[in-house]
Amino acid sequence: MTEWEKVQAGVVYDDFSRELFDIRVEAKRLFRVYNATGDDEAELRRELLEKLLAHVGEGVWIEPDFRCEYGRNISIGDRTYLNFGAIILDCAPVSIGSDVLVGPNLGIYAVNHSLVAEERIAGACIGAPVSIGDRCWLGGDVKVMAGVTIGDEAVIGAGSVVTRDVPAGVIAAGNPCRVIREVRESDLLGFGR
User: Fold this and answer.
1) pLDDT under 50 in the chain at which residues?
2) Active-site annotation holder among 113, 120, 153, 159
3) Is 113 an active-site residue?
4) Are 31 and 51 in contact (CB under 8 A)?
């Protein structure tokens, strides 16, 4: 089994392998070109995202400076917006739904290094998928850890570190992130009504 196949299978892999190094180099080449584009180059940005990511929906907008590890494991639904400074370490599948709004400095880390120093120094890593549902809002500086699922329409408060699953339709915040309450009808602002 190649190291990339191990990444895909969710088993321990050698993060220092030449194979993974080469994939990361290609991802960096693409996101650096992407980050150098202007807002008036939407077609070029779309082409670059289609080369970099596993799937990119219609109407996706990612502000520069965007960075990822491989890109190949990232899927983004329609009309999703990632603000400035998003970093996604996609050492496992990362799925971001449709109509998601993300504040600046998002961090999604679908990877863990070994806790044992000897293994860690040798390059031992293991990934776990991250899934963010449809119509979510993640505030600025949110960090999402490996293995986390965030349900549809959840709101994650700014500065939160999400270490466990968050159910649909709730407001959650903190470090570690915890559910505060459900989103209520009384939260409506009356916009567009």
Assistant:
1) none
2) 113
3) yes
4) no
